[in-house]
Amino acid sequence: MSLVWVDASSGASGDMLLGALVGAGVPVSLIASAIDAVAPEPVVLVPEQVRRGALAATRVRVQVADSVQHRTWTDVRSLLTGASLDEPVRELALRVFERLAVAEGEVHGIPPEDVHFHEVGALDAIADVVGVCAGFVSLDASQVVVSPVAVGSGTVRAAHGTLPVPPPAVARLLTGVPSYAGAPGHPAMELCTPTGAALLTTLATSWGAQPLMTTRAVGVGAGGRDPQGWSNAVRVLVGEEAGANSRHGGNFGADPAAEGRNFPPWRENAPTSETELVLEANIDDLDPRLIPGAIDALLAAGAADAWATPILMKKGRPAHTIHALVPASAAAAVRRVFFEETSTIGVREHEVVKHALPRRMLTVSVGGQQIAVKAALLDDAVVNLQPEWDDVARAAAALGRPAIDVLAEAKAAALDL
Q1: Going from the N-terminus, what domains does the chain have, and what CATH number goes with each?
Q2: Would you call 64 exposed, middle or buried from its count of C-beta atoms within 10 A (0-12, 13-18, 19+)?
Q3: N or C end of the chain: which has fewer CB within 10 A?
């Protein structure tokens, strides 16, 4: 199982993601085989090395015959369900196109089945979606973390006329996930296409800055546009969680020298130190029932952690300070959540240094229920084992047992590994 981080700080499109996957080592033949199984007409993939700004990148040209056919979601679904595809690829591609159809239907006020995809229904876009899905399935990723998505600015010409950026379908697809116009210097153009937005929101298991990982491959993907002075490309980093021991399946304990066990080289995974930001605001005029939802929104926007502290303000007013620990790449998106989800009109910001122990996830069984446990190490010894509470609560409900007993049993089982 691998961990994948997608850097969408220059936006995303289907062909950019396709190029990034090929650049990261996914065989073109694997992608072409999946596309050939779906496409009703010949499709040829031509990979080439290009430059985008200061970056060398991979572009995959999708060559198809000229066609004026505009397929509906029903047409595309029939192509996918009737194709000789591996089931995980088919299921993922169906989810991407369904997400697109629902978004386009909501934007135009029609049922998803009646949506004419126009550009999205063309053969090259079908190839992009199916090819990207096949590529990600081949990576066997247990986690796909996506950075906040740059959408661009200005206007774009589409089948429905001139639209503001982000186009309505992109804005709808990215609802609830971190996005922003782009960093200073970004050209005034569409950076994230509907296809790119549908792929990212379907593939992502979480959103944020690059996680702690050991990278084994990097792919830089380019599309057809090459704006002057900007590296218009998507990066895909493929690897594993730092400290993961994929060769031995992940069992470990506090004694690395214990005979008969396989342990990762913990000395190679020293504690890390990194600079992050703390954003915070004192709020005395917000219904406290809204605070948990605001914290959830901060986390969804890319905050590494978020919390609230009761305080007493001037004139004896009870209030709360809402805090968010944020990587710099997510600061703009998190700051926006403060203004949209709370009543504050000002946000403080300061740098902090975070020291993090190497950590590893393992799985234990309690009464046949699987529970994930997070372990942290210091100087080769396990100093903290914490079962994931959502798993504990689910297992307790399934077993009809008190959660406190399931928690204790899960922790004991982890200590025995």
Answers
A1: 2-241 (no CATH), 272-356 (3.30.70.1380), 358-415 (3.10.20.300)
A2: middle
A3: N
